[in-house]
Amino acid sequence: MSKCFLFTDNFSGGNKKTQYDKIFIETGTREEAIEIFQEEFGIDPLLYSCSCCGVDFLIDEFLNLDEATINDRAKIFIIERGCLKPEEHGKFIDPSEIIPQGYYLAWNDRTEYISLEEYKKRNKDKTIFLK
Ligand SMILES: [Zn+2]
Known about the structure:
Blueprint: E1 3-9, E2 22-27, H1 30-41, E3 57-62, H2 65-69, E4 74-80, H3 86-89, E5 90-93, E6 103-105, E7 111-113, H4 116-122, E8 127-130
Parallel strand pairs: 2-8
Antiparallel strand pairs: 1-2, 1-3, 4-5, 4-6, 4-7
């Protein structure tokens, strides 16, 4: 049974350790994931480059890749102010984006998810998926 482990660069010591922001590794155990990581990048993710910043990579465990990426794939709906037809003048943006002037956040449960394939395509420079 395969799980998904997410390695997030913690910028320990102030610098990024690989070219990626997020590294997803699908395998059975945390120990295997760390081995795969070391083989791919030649570095130990559990090093502390700086004692005050903490460990080089934070490791989170998820049931699968779908669950590991679900928050990143969420889009929230915003509506233009004064607009009487929100369905025609609203749009989906990333939750991390600043809501542009003239728009307001729709109701909380109005969320859309982009597909895993689309997520991979859009983030191909910032993420890597290993097995
Ligand atoms: Zn530090």
